[in-house]
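Chapter review: from sequence to fold.
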Amino acid sequence: MVTILDGKVVSEKRLELLKEAIGESGLYPRLATVIVGGDPASQMYVRMKHRACERVGIGSVGIECPGDATTQKVLETITRLNKDPEINGILVQLPLPKQIDTDKIISAVRTEKDVDGFHPTSLGLLMSGKPGFTPCTPTGIMTLLKEYHIPVAGARAVVAGRSIDVGRPMAALLTNADATVTICHSKTKDLPAELKRADILVSAIGKAQFITPEMVKPGAVVIDVGINQLDGKLVGDVDFAAVKDIASAITPVPGGVGPMTIATLMENTFAAATRME
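The token string follows.
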């Protein structure tokens, strides 16, 4: 019988605990979000983050820059937020428009306020095994594995995708937790064979229902980070209906990894407020 790794249920529990902790702390953490342009998906994600803030007692400030904003204009916004003592966390909603130098923007965020964990210093600390803030999606996945008592130490983990926001930090977190980790990508030879070796398979490749049963080891734990549109429906990278019959545990899309990402962002923001006291 497959276990559905329900991120919605776990995130609700985490948010309730966080709300209590914030209430008892006497702090009023504040998160600033920066969005450039009017991409509907980005706007929806930002709204979800603000709703989560309201729920747990975190103040939130939303800053919207026009779609034709220059890198310099966005940098000025980041500089202002860096200097504001009442702002504990800064989140720049990605992706940014093509004319913006994304690396420059991310690097401009003060590491003490880098609740997204994307600053080069934050990523360097993660790779060194002494993490500060870590990216929210991979961290949320680690929390989900822990909540369901899935052993990571000694497991063979395969991460499909090498992006800086999910794939690489996911591999680092799994390595830090004593898994044996392989990262796969578009140039990997015999990808299905590599995927099938995984005790824990994390897919973050962004291709609808790409992972099929013959790519999954019987009894594997399957974590689906993908969010894709297919025939007007939201689906993951994994063919959920077919793969769930051979996996021991699997995340649904939606309702798996997504809620954990937002819960982790809230936890990071509170941690930033605590450290700045």
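Two observations follow directly from the output. The longest strand covers residues 30-36. The mean pLDDT is 96.
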